[in-house]
Amino acid sequence: MKAEEAGDVTAALAAFEEAVEIPGPYTEEIREIIDDYYKALDTVEEKKNPWSLRFLGDIGFYGLHYNEYGGVEKVSETGGDVFFSLTPFVDYSSGDWIHSFGLGFSGDWFVANDDMPVLDTNDWNISVGLEYSLVGKSLMVDVGADIKVVEGAYVSPNFYAWVERDFYRFEKQRVGAAVWGYYDPDGPLSFALYGSWHRTVPYGLNGSAYVGARFEADSAVDFVKFVETYKNTVEDSENEGNVEQWNSYWGGSNPMYGNWQNPMQVCLETYGPECYNWNIGKIDSMYWAQRNAPQNSESTADVSIPKYYAKWFGPTLRSQVSYKFKRNITVEARLNLFYGFVLDGPDSDYEKMGKFSGVWGTMLYWKPNALTLYLGAEQFYKHYSLPKYYVGIYPRNTILTELKVGFKWEI
Predict the structure, then answer these.
(1) Quick one: how far is CA 248 from the chain centroid?
(2) pLDDT tens across 117-159, in order?
(3) Neighbours of 287 (CB within 10 A)
(4) Which long-range contacts (CB under 8 A, 24 or more apart) does 234-239 make?
(5) How far apart are CA 43 and CA 62, in angstroms?
(6) Residue 253 dihedral angles phi and psi, to the nearest 5°
(7) Do 119 and 150 contact (CB within 8 A), yes or no?
């Protein structure tokens, strides 16, 4: 009250904001006083230029370690990623609303990745993104598009949207709902609906949680059709050597009953590292095929790999908790989970699959000035419950571990 009587608006507002964090009989009255202050300040701000410019940047190094196991030969790979991003924003304030327009540039330069064929990193990629956000007292909208250019002139666009609305506020918390969507023409297409909760304070314990349901459509190989088409093509070409070779690879004419191996592994054992130059990549974000079967001097068969968009649905969680110290140090942890059931797959065996994916990690931030230094670790885990037919085609488990160090800035 002394600061208010002295006319020191900044000190008075800071004192009221500290007081409102202490539960008591005058909490609501203090909150009304704070609202009156901000309304008065908004009136003053309206006389100022509503336009402003800011820059967000990030430079970091990520150490990468990838593991793949369960039903296939175990894989363990290590490499690194030098990451950068720079996004200038133009902000426009109008009453209770802030409009932001951003043009972002980001890229990755992968180092020590010669022995990372399964993780399949290129030497570099660059992305250009457009973003628009609208922020009000109880509504937030964020939409955007990114275009990624990968080494080899491959262009990959994607689009995203996030809408969140607060319905109820009490003390330091707010409760609402959110909708999220993501689309990549090569897969996946994702959509989720959440109930949301937030706790926000200047210092101390903060947290957020989103609980809901998620739909996902991702590219998958119609493997049964591929096997049948390949065998028929080889037989039609009367290439008996390839038929015998095929049967030896897959344990007989029906692979479901044979002791068959992963196609990529078979290729490596037969033709060596040259397989990495053929179109054998990852489908369903996991393994081995993209658009065309490998063409080589040993085979006259030319068979396109049939693609299918498998559809998944299940419960999902996004959560984050952090503690901010008064010395501008913040410790943060997050946990994202999803379990998917197949709604529609390329065959009846595929539809028996289950997919569990999780992202978890912890970060340490120190913000001495406009720079924010960070250090942390994050893991991306995926587990497939596989029916017998698909054992050996997809790995049951994959884990990507990232060790992160770098700095961000906002000016």
Answers:
(1) 40
(2) 777 667 888 999 999 999 998 999 999 999 998 876 678 899 9
(3) 20
(4) 234/299, 234/301, 237/300, 237/301, 239/299, 239/300, 239/301
(5) 45
(6) -70, -25
(7) no
Distances (CA, A) of 95 to 91, 98, 164: 13, 8, 19
How far is the C-alpha of 10 from the C-alpha of 16, rounded, in Å? Answer: 10
**Per-residue pLDDT tens over the stretch 51-94:** 999 999 999 999 999 999 987 788 899 999 999 999 999 999 99
Distance CA 394, CA 382 (A): 11
Place of tokens 């009953």: 257
pLDDT of residue 109: 93
CA dihedral 267, 273, 276, 277 (to 10 degrees): -110
Q: Is the dihedral of CA 331, 198, 165, 341 positive or negative?
A: positive
Q: What angle do CA 372, 368, 45 make, to 5 degrees?
A: 85
Report CA-CA distances (Å) from 80 to 76, 85, 386, 401.
14, 17, 31, 11
Locus of tokens 């044979």:
258
**Three-state secondary structure string covering the chain:** CHHHHCCCHHHHHHHHHHHHCCCCCCHHHHHHHHHHHHHHHHHHHHCCCCEEEEEEEEEEEEEEEEEEECCCCCEEEEEEEEEEEEEEEEEEEECCEEEEEEEEEEEEEEECCCCCCCCCCCCEEEEEEEEEEEECCCEEEEEEEEEEEECCCEEEEEEEEEEEEEEEEECCEEEEEEEEEEECCCCCEEEEEEEEEEECCCCEEEEEEEEEEEEEEEEEECHHHHHHHHHHHHHHCCCHHHHHHHHHHHCCCCHHHCCCCCHHHHHHHHHHHHHHHCCCCCCCCCCCCCCECCCCCCCCCCCECCEEEEEEEEEEEEEEEEEECCCCEEEEEEEEEEEEEEEECCCCCHHHCEEEEEEEEEEEEECCCCEEEEEEEEEEEEEEECCHHHECCECCEEEEEEEEEEEEEEC
Using CA atoms, how far residue 57 sits from 116, 405, 411, in Å, is: 28, 14, 9
Going by C-alpha positions, the residue among 282, 245, 259 that lies closest to residue 394 is 282
Judge whether 178 and 210 are in contact, CB under 8 Å: yes
Identify which of 219, 296, 231 has the alpha carbon closest to the alpha carbon of residue 258. 231
Q: Note whether 32 and 19 are within 8 A (CB).
A: no
